[in-house]
Amino acid sequence: MFFNLPTLLTWARIVAIPLIVGVFQLPLAEPDRNLVATVLFVIVALTDWADGYLARRLNMTSSFGAFLDPVADKFLVCAALLVLVELDRVQSLIALIIIGREIAISALREWMAQIGASRSVAVHMLGKVKTVVQMVAIPFLLFHGRLFGVIDTQVWGTWLIYASAVLTIWSMVYYLQKALPEIRAKAR
Length: 188
Prior knowledge:
Strand content: under 5%
Shape: globular
Structural class: mainly alpha
Largest sheet: 2 strands, antiparallel
Helix content: over 70%
């Protein structure tokens, strides 16, 4: 369904992306911008869990929702990474690895669906772990300060985004290996 509650939450995630980016254009002190962007990002990221939970719980799963959900996730992560590169909190190479993988695997999944082999590149736990690590790293990097006066979010966020880049490459290799037999079979 195009407009059920889970799908509306996914649409809300997409609509909220410019708000997160726009926070850094507001005439606020840097710590205030960081806090507002972090809170917005966390709330928006939590809708990813909520829409999936509600879709299953209320039996409102749809092929459109299954399509839109990962698109919203990719938009959110890519937009946040671009902001973090602009703020010099993430190296552009790390952002390129993560964004490049998202584009490559999305294209691979699209192609595999066209040849009737989408099961070979179905979401794997490795991809889910990668997403969780990204979704923890990004708010730490957006916050860019000491959380509760103790946790240096820039240090933790940097380590987590590096771990995310490693998981990104690892998961891409995994999906490519799973797709390779189908690719070889269709190339004949």
